[in-house]
Amino acid sequence: MKKVRIAAIGIVILGVTSCQKCKDCHYDHDGMEHEIGELCDDELKDAEANGYSVNDSTVVTIHCEEH
Amino acid sequence: MKRIYISSFLILLGIGSSFNTFGQMFSGVVLEESNKEKGIPFAKIYFVDLGSTIYTDENGDWHIDDAPEGINHAIVSAVGFETKHTDLTLIAETPSVIYLKQAHHQLDKVIVSNDGLLHRESITNIESHQLSDINKIPSTTLGESISNIPGVYQTGIGTGISKPVIRGFSGSRVVTYVNSLRIENQQWGGDHGLPVTSLGIGGVEVIKGPASLLYGADALGGVLYFVDEPYAERDHFNGFVSSRFEHNSLGTSNQAGFRYSRSKFRINVYGGYDNYADLGTPNGNQILNSRFNQSSAKVSMGLNRKKWFFNLRYNFYNGRIGIPGHTHDSLPDPSSFLTSNQNRAENVPAQSIQNHLISIENKFFFKNQEIFITLGNTNNSLKEFEEKFFFPDIIMKLNNSLYNIKWRARMSSKWEAIIGSQGMLQLNNNGKEAVEILIPDSKMLDLGLYGLLRWNSEKWRILLGARVDNRSIETYNQSSFKKSYSGINYSSGFAYLGEKSTVRFNVSSGFRAPTTSELLSDGIHHGAFRYEIGNDSLKTEKAIQIDASYALHFDDLELIINPFFNHVRDYIYVQQVDSIIDNFDVYHYRQANYAILYGLDFGIHYHPHIAHWLHIESSFSNIFAEDENKLPVPRIPQSRINSQLKFEFKMKGKFQISNIVLQHIYYFKQNRIGSLETESPAYHLLNVGINTKFDFKQPIFLSAGVRNLLNEEFIDHLSGLKNLGLPNPGVNFYLSVRYQFNKQLKHKHK
Prior knowledge:
A: alpha+beta, two-stranded antiparallel sheet, B: 750 residues, mainly beta
């Protein structure tokens, strides 16, 4: 019974532990591909939704799919 | 809607509960046909409608107290005897006698099937297979597995998206059932795969050709009917844990299942998880983003009373499937779709799919009558992520509520009548956050009524049936379209089931109303790599198929030849036009006056007297298709010879080799191609597998093998990646292990 409980707790912990979603992203500008680096979770979500600010002035569309 | 379901459930539960809950005792004996006084010990009797299994005692006697009085369909089998399907009439205090013929030579009916569940209601040649017997070399997906059946192929994108093709038809022309529940999953899309995994599936039956009589609109190309694994033998608890590894895509497939059965309550519970990285091509690269992962769960629960049997079934599926071949270039370089870095992390573009399938089956048994009522709901959520990980471009939710009512009456020992009705309310809604609307929000209502008359003698069966259907489609929100389509269908035929030969002849019709995608689509379909434009003036497709089969069954040889001719009026097809929108080729839906599809399936199974350990099986399938101008119809599968050498061993001891299988598949060149299609060259595939058993008290099964042993580089004619020049998977080693246990429970005395 103890083993069953340990297994059940393990499964619950694994189930509720959310995986971090991080992606290497870039943007295209002047015909060049500019690397941004890794964006994770809310930062990635926000950049996908509203664009990514470069130098606090230009907002660019990011691409994060694996090539 | 929920209230309706709950009310229906309670009403049915109430009806059922009003029947007497105390079973009567029925008994009988299984005897040898050649010696009618000799009982057959330990024969297995499986009551199909009840899902109950019992065994005879050492004298051949049996008894059952949890079955309804009247006709019960049963499958009776015993070692050394031919398996028999019979309609057993159970009457209290009147023993039933079942005779089994001795099998002089053990040759299972591998290719000649007369005993599938669907044979009770259809006269055509139906392929009926246990999933574990289709091929002893396991396949990655269920779609790939059933493509070993003659006349059945698969199309798809990579390994994760696999769709069945029956005699050249796929998508919305093929209807899929799981038990008595029709499954809908936007199957019009070439990238929307078979919505069922192998989890908890016991067998599959395939009707090739129109079958609208029993399955309604859309069953124009065929029907796939998956049957769940039966419940455990009464008073038993058993289960399994299995795992398979495939080296090509570093994939793992894990399943577990448990079955518990008492006299009046049974339950099966399953869970599974598959995770595959990008698949490897023969040249050592991987196809970028061909990765997929999926989890599934399944629960079946059965209750029975004296005259009522109840099943509640629930299936869950959640999958994320990568869509390879992504590009923004109008002239893509195929090498950009390949990678040397095999990965399984989430990527885009991808599909995210979630299915909930629920059904309530009720069977009411009377002396010479049965009533079947199935209520069900399927819910398919499809999201397609194009370039963003958090924001899908396409969000479609398909909800399907259906009923299936059937009344079967045995009027005399030879005459049987079936009257039934089926209905389906389908709601297809785009999500509010959807960026792209490929097809508008719509409501579809199907209603059908059918009747069927069947005459049976010992060797002859004749069947006549007719059906009337109506489908109405109405769109809302994005567009306004309303139309109704009707169809009258029939099926008639005969079968002669002789000692050594079987002859079947059947003429059947089918119809298919155009789908909303064919009528109204106007947008990029990323999964199909094209911009689709619908045509709202499309009419219904109507098909008539003539299907004949002649089968011979000797002690050591089986042969079957099954030619067919299918004439489809107002054939709908999608044609590429000389235009590009947003870097995607443009395709229009068109309608030809007619198309004809004809061909044959041929099968042979030889089990020589001199080598009892050897089985030789081979099948040949071919299909020709042309339109009214005698021009080939596109996307017709290559002709195929599928051969197997199976070496079976009967070993003793703790370690046993059960069988070794060598499979060779030859695909002929396809040069009958549609406009803008390219030819596909011939290719060979060689597969090998070994299945072993560690015969412990709770056995462990170990299997290993190689698929595409010669690392042949090929592109199947039906592959969705053909236009991109991306090959099918290369050599693939697999290893699988399965642990089983079976425990007899203490019998509960009343």
